Structures are given as C-alpha cells and as structure tokens.
Amino acid sequence: MNQLIMALATGFYIGMIPKAPGTWGSLAAFLPWFLLKDLPLPAYLIVLATVFVLGFFVSGSAEKILDRPDAGPIVIDEILGMFITLTLAPPHPAAWILGFILFRIFDIFKPFPVSWFDQRVHGGIGIMMDDVIAGLYALASLQLLWFIIG
Asked: To the nearest whole percent, how much of the chain has pLDDT over 90?
C-alpha cells in the first residue's frame, strides 16, 4: 500500500527528481491535462474534486512515510494546482506556458493566503490547499492577462 501511496503522491515518482520537484510536478501535470482538457466543465470539475480528495489522503500519508512535513517529493498538489490554473485555458500553447509560469510564481512566492495555508495548516489538507489557492490566483491571472493581450 505504501508503494501505491508514494506513486500517487509523487506523480508516479516525478517528485523524486532531486532538483526542483515542484517544477517537475507542475510540468508533469500537462500530460494528464491534455487528456482531460476537452471534458465538459462539470466533468472536469469532478476530476478536480477527485484529485483534491485523493491528494488529501495520499499526501498526508506520504508525509508520514517520508517522515517530513510537506516533503518536496510530494507533487500531487502541484498537479492539482496546474489543473486548476488551466481550467478553461485558451486553446493556445502560449496560454498554457503562461499558465505554468503564473502557477510557479504564485506557488513559489506564496502571496496571502497561500502563505497562511502553507505555514498554519498541516497534513494533507495543508499540502493541498496552498497549491489550490496558488492555482486559483494563476487561473484568474491567466484569464485576465489573456483577455488583455488576446
């Protein structure tokens, strides 16, 4: 069971890449996103909710297995953050790249309330929520910027 938990929490071991696991996890999100992006919005939102619940359980368990709070190899939260960022993304590769950059900025710099969740909420919910909020910031920014420049 631990192997399954670790496989899911680490994005099928993408998070085990030693340098910048969050960036690798965010990049890895593109592969499943390409398969999901054309779903009707209600189905897409169900996928997001499912990944959130799954991520809550496996990230909290992986944290205990690794014996480190919010350990770097856990990237299911970045995958969900990218799925959120790319919700209703314009059908253009430049928009997808911009979404990736925006998500990484919000995930790394953690503006409030991302930082609040990161520092004060622990376990699986804390691991997931800071990236959910970063994803929402990136989603709003992507939509606004694309509206302005598109």
From this structure: 95
